[in-house]
Each structure stands twice: as C-alpha cells, then as structure tokens.
UniProtKB/TrEMBL annotation:
The lineage of its organism: Bacteria, Pseudomonadati, Bacteroidota, Bacteroidia, Bacteroidales. Signal peptide: none annotated. Residues 94-176 form the SPOR domain. Pfam families: SPOR. It comes from the Bacteria. SUPFAM superfamilies: Sporulation related repeat. Gene3D superfamilies: Sporulation related repeat. GO terms for molecular function: peptidoglycan binding. InterPro entries: SPOR-like_dom, SPOR-like_sf. This is Sporulation related protein.
Length: 183
C-alpha cells in the first residue's frame, strides 16, 4: 500500500511538472508576437531566428532571459499544433478550416439569385468588413456572410445584421461551414 502511495505521489509530481512546462510554453507562445514586434523594431544587424534567440539576445538597458527546454519543445514552437493541423486544409490555394458563417438568405424561386445578390450588395455597403459568399446548390441559392472561428464572433455578427436589416431578421442565423483563413 505504501508503495502504491509513493507511486501515485511521483506520478502526480510528474504530471505537475508537465503542466508547468506546458504552461510556460503557452505563455512563451502568447508573448511571442509582442517580443517579435519589439525585436523587429529595434536596430539589429541580424534578426533572431526564433523566440528563444530573441529572448536571449543582450541589448543595452535590458535584461537577458534564459529558457531551458528540451530540443523537441524548441522545435515545436511556431508550428501549428497536431490538433489544429488536421483541421486546416488548403482548397484552391486558400487555407480553410471548420468555423462559422451567418446565413442571410436561402431561396429556390426564380428571383433567388437576384435577391441574394441584392442583399449581398446591401450588406457590403453597410458592413464592408464582412465578406459575402453566394453559393448555389441545386435548387437553392444561399448567401453566407463572414469567416468566424468562434460561435461568439458569429453571434455578434448576427446581432449587428439583425439590427441593420430588421426585415431580414427571421432569416439570419449562424451555420457551420468551412471558413477562409488569413483573409
């Protein structure tokens, strides 16, 4: 019984070390863009290759940060995680992943294409930050708006669109769809 308690204690300590290491890595990644911006704005003859090199570079009036980590962690920094790499794909040279869009129109009558284009023009005029996507999947014309990674962003867009176009409010809702990245 004492052996089992000792084993569990060591396992818990190992798990805690892993959690702390992961937390430090995530903090480093989160701060990476800030440090990258600071490093690129200062006058360097040689730009740092990685966040680890950037943090370890001595500059007048600044401290030096030393990070100790396994080579595997150092190599993994800056790459898309395994979980996300499977979600991101390329279609026609455009990076896409599963996300959310706002459906503003769906119709299958003779005037559906014209109606969808009319709504797209109105949305582009009132909300130029939102990209409109008109699609046809027989027999329906659909107008989708935006590329949202989170449901919360899409819900906020729904609120804005319903406020701007109250006559369309019944037809406006969030749908899951492939979204474009970096546009």
């Amino acid at each position: 019984m004492a052996l089992r308690a000792s084993f569990n204690k060591k396992r818990n300590q190992t798990e805690m070390k892993s959690i702390i290491t992961l937390s430090i890595l995530l903090l480093t990644l989160a701060c990476g863009s800030l440090v990258e911006a600071q490093v690129s704005s200062s006058a360097h003859s040689k730009a740092p290759v990685s966040i680890f090199e950037a943090l370890g570079t001595e500059q007048n009036g600044e401290g030096v940060i030393t990070i100790y980590q396994p080579a595997a962690v150092k190599a993994a920094v800056g790459r898309v995680s395994g979980r996300l790499s499977g979600l991101i794909e390329t279609e026609g040279g455009i990076r896409v992943m599963q996300g959310y869009r706002v459906q503003v129109y769906n119709g299958n009558v003779a005037s559906s294409k014209r109606d969808a284009n009319h709504r797209a023009a109105q949305i582009a005029q009132m909300h130029p930050e939102l990209q409109c996507y008109l699609t046809y999947r027989a027999p329906f014309w659909r107008l989708l708006v935006g590329d949202f990674a989170s449901r919360q962003e899409a819900d906020e867009a729904v609120r804005q669109l319903k406020k701007s176009f109250p006559s369309y409010a019944r037809e406006i809702y969030v749908v899951r769809d492939k979204i474009r990245l970096g546009n």
